[in-house]
Write a structure and sequence with these properties.
Layout: H1 3-8, H2 11-42, H3 45-72, H4 75-98, H5 104-132, H6 138-166, H7 168-189, H8 199-203, H9 208-220, H10 223-241, H11 247-254, H12 259-283, H13 289-300, H14 302-309, H15 313-325, H16 327-341, H17 347-360, H18 362-380, H19 388-395, H20 401-420, H21 425-428, H22 430-433
Length: about 450
Amino acid sequence: MKLPDVFTSMRTFLIVWAGQLVSLLGSRMTRFALIIWAYQQTGDATTLALLGFFSYLPIVLASPFAGVWVDRLDRRKIMILADSGSALTTAGLLILYATGNLQIWHLYLAEGLSGFFEAFQSPAYTAASSLLVPKAHYGRASGLRSLALNGADVIAPAFAGLLLGLIGIQGIMTLDVITFFAALGTLLVVRFPAPPVRAAEASSRPGLKAQLTFGFRYIFARKGLLGLLLIYTCINLFAALTYFGVLPAMILTRSGGDELALASVQGALGAAGVIGGIVVSLGGLPRRRIHAALGATAISFLGDFLFAAGRDVTAWVVAACVSSFFIPILLAGERAIWQTKVPPEVQGRVFAAQSMVRMGMMPLGYLLAGPLADRLFEPAMLPGGALARVFGGLVGTGPGAGMGLMFLFTCLGGTLLCLSGYAIRPVRRVEIELPDFDAEEPATDSATRATGETVPVAI
């Protein structure tokens, strides 16, 4: 199939994707501006790490309930409500800032609310994509989503850095609220197809407890998906400890608070991600998607090593490019495996359970990232510190070197973790041993027989 025909078959998805891209750009601009503001208020890594903690904790807690509603209701309406909630949260911060009442704890509360809405929006978006896109193009759709995410990361820091001097944080948040209407408008003009309802599920009404636990039982009955999930759960912990938890603080600390340095690194992360997203969107995935998932993830951890050893903006930009180019590829490979193996009518519950487990370690990572940086690694890597003699030749010494050492450790741990996936047969052969959702008639397995729900036979 020619590329124009491919994207014609994805027309509705592309309309929704375009609106989400515009809204995401506004959100990323606001987040960048508020990170700068928060760091100026406190000057420590813990403050920035806690922003991530309060963002991901609601995702972990709300995901099981969100999954049930995603499978019950119109996924388009769920996305509308979730996007509206996020826009109102930004409007609240705008009012607080404009009146001179904005405080750090307000940012924590806003991150918590945004995380709650994300718990509904993300599984609804992914489950809807499975119906809006032909199965053969799941990888391309995932690549486009990564392209939007990374494209926003390229443009937002540059725009925010420019606009901070022209219209200030208040103006940037105002633009963010305006961009919400782009996402709302696209969702209002399209319709999502309803997922198929299997006879056994339509004739039964399992209780709330059974529905809340359905996704977990589905995953635990399939060793390949479970192993893949656990690998990426640990990878997310490493990401929270470094990329999400201390990277902005490390760049600002080692550059003397240079906002342009941080914007350059974040722009490079986004630019490389855009290129990776274009590659996977146009070229698709390898036949064995597990290689795109595990292999690309292992290679991306080389960027952690380069962040650890880097001492200037040029080195950090190279590290950002190495890390971020492979992220759309690994996400497309992993997401396509899940979309291909899980029936669309239960993807809300299964993907919500997946999200809860995968994100479950991230709040812990955020909680640990700040204290580990400020109280352990940073003092240890000062001249004469406990670890300076051992690692100083590689990551340097002085302010920021301790956070660089954290990147070195996540590089080693993450690479070994990814490669270990090839040693686990159910993970390595998940595409071969676990049938696609449309490959055979469903049969009730032992994990769901008591509830009356029907799912494909477990492997």
